[in-house]
Amino acid sequence: MIFDAEVFQITILSLQISALATGISLLIGLPLGTMLALGKFWGRSFFLSIVNTGMGLPPVVVGLFVAMMLWRSGPFGDLHLIYTPMAIIIAQTVISAPVVIGLTAAALQSLDPRLQLQLYGLGASRLQMIWALWREARLPLLAALMAGFGSVISEVGASMMVGGNIRHQTRVLTTAIVLETGKGNFDIAIALGVLLLTITFLVNWALTWIQQKGAR
């Protein structure tokens, strides 16, 4: 099985699922994190506390919740998403989104508050002001992206619960490692583990290169 067509398929599926989950988390997390960082409304501290708690959600708890929602008797059972790649994407998005939201809010809150006044004084609209703040905080925002991706590419509990580890359908690298370990195929499990670590390193190396290039 090592480095054959099946491993290639599992690897591609892992990257597709984690990339989609991270992208959706970014689309959700960037505006929500910005709202929590810059907005002034009742309950803001409460919502920030919920987000910070969500950053430490156990993946198996997320998997249980999503499975209950998508199960045949659940509220979204008619969609028939359980044990599909989409179910894994949903679970991984729930895991990753709080990370992106929380780190985005922290990144923008760390900026000098006088910067907003300066931008408004120069005639910037609210959208232009937010865009300028994102550019100013681009380094920690890239760190938020890396953290979000790292939280899902190595996740196994939720993927196993909502995906079922079905061969050629929902088996990803982490669930394949668990399967091979359970079968006693430690050499294959180790090889898959090295492959997972290599992929994670390469993705984070690319994002770090972009981050540091931006710093220069």
Characterise the protein shown here.
The protein is mostly helical and 216 residues long. It has one domain: MetI-like (MetI-like fold). It is built from 10 helices and no strands. It has helices spanning 5-38, 44-54, 59-70, 85-109, 114-121, 126-136, 138-153, 157-163, 173-182, 186-215. Helix 2 (44-54) packs across helix 4 and helix 3 (59-70) packs across helix 4. The protein is globular, with a radius of gyration of 20 Å. The termini are far apart.
Helices and strands: which structural class?
mainly alpha
According to DSSP, the number of beta strands is 0
Rounded to the nearest angstrom, the radius of gyration is 20 Å
Euclidean distance between termini CA atoms: 44 Å
Instruction: Give the overall average pLDDT.
Output: 88
Tally of separate helices: 10
Order of helices and strands: HHHHHHHHHH
Instruction: Give the name of the CATH superfamily.
Output: MetI-like
Beta-strand fraction estimate: under 5%
Domain ABC transmembrane type-1: 11-207
Subcellular location: Cell membrane; Membrane
Family: Belongs to the binding-protein-dependent transport system permease family.
Membrane topology: Multi-pass membrane protein
Offer a quick outline of the entry.
This protein is an all-alpha fold. It has helices spanning about 5-40, 45-55, 60-70, 85-110, 115-120, 125-135, 140-155, 155-165, 175-180, 185-215.
Lay out the secondary structure.
Blueprint: H1 5-38, H2 44-54, H3 59-70, H4 85-109, H5 114-121, H6 126-136, H7 138-153, H8 157-163, H9 173-182, H10 186-215
Helix pairs in contact: 1-4, 1-7, 2-4, 3-4, 3-8, 4-7, 4-8, 5-6, 7-10, 9-10
